[in-house]
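Hi L., both proteins are below.
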Amino acid sequence: MTQYSETYFEIFDGGDMIRVEPYQAIKDGSALDWDRNWIKTKVKIKGGVFSGQYVADFMTTDFELLKRDFKKLDKDFNATANFEPLEGQLKLNISGDGLGHFEVKCIAQDQPGVGGTLSFILSFDQTELARLINELDKITKAFPISGDMTLKNE
């Protein structure tokens, strides 16, 4: 039986999907604010006949920024949202058509610069935004921005 966490966000389109599941603060007890904001995250992807999963390191701020971007999409269907973490292990570029349809360009890399890369496109509509915002809100509550960072949780 597969175990699923309550702390994840997932975009799916038919059989294609991306699931991002943060599960552990990397250096929770560090004296440096920067280090305390890194999270070990399981990434599961399926694009066409290709699929895989890997562990990536993202920052608490990455999830907060994406949550804010999704809130903008919910108000403006022409807006864009981006998930572009520092390490480059996953990039999501989301653009709206103004009518409530969104395209997600996904680039997943197990080891940026030297590892394998999977690129694919997903789509969803505005009815998914509330769920996505809620999922990201759970993540930002479970892994809040820590210390003296310029960005704070909403």
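That was the first. Here is the second:
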Amino acid sequence: MNKLFQIIFILSFGICFSQINVEEIKKNVTENPQEYKSYLEIFKKNPASLTQEQMNQLYYGSRFVKSEYDLSNYNDDYKEVWKPSEKKLSKSNAEKIVTKAEKAYVKDPLNRLILKNISNIYSVLGDNAKEELAMIQYNAVMNTIKNSGSGDSEDSPICVIWAGDVIAQIDNLHGYGTAADFKQNMKYLPDGSTITAYSMGKKKIFVKLVGGFRWEQ
């Protein structure tokens, strides 16, 4: 894999934090679904050509588009496909699961877990082109989350679309105190999202779950 290209791609997104306007993104996806589909097709083939604003519209807009592969599907496939791909796979095992992994990718190409794991599968199979594309797509998603906000205040929260990604931000509190110091506070926002403040000692992180919880899953 071309590591230098990945680094250049990451830097191309810049270090400025975006302002994620949930109501505007939801309106755009609802009233102009063709634009969303256009961005998605570009993401599948050449993600580096999307601007940060377009990635914001695509990634956070996906929260308001019905997915053909939801969390329950991911959990159903976890033992057979995704758990093995998180570790060092043998080539024979990679060959057994790649077809099912690709079907999942087609249904949910913005899922960061699918992107990371399918990249590992392609790596074992020696398919460098597909491995690199999946990793570039993964980095695009991760940088979109990273650039969504500093996480230092309620006005600049880190924005995610999965509840699991909210909890994952707790890792950033390590080293700032003990478990006894840990606190959290969540509130609902007018746009349907939730914002959670995690704190440990003097460190505090604000995380916004765009669109709120997916109760249907």
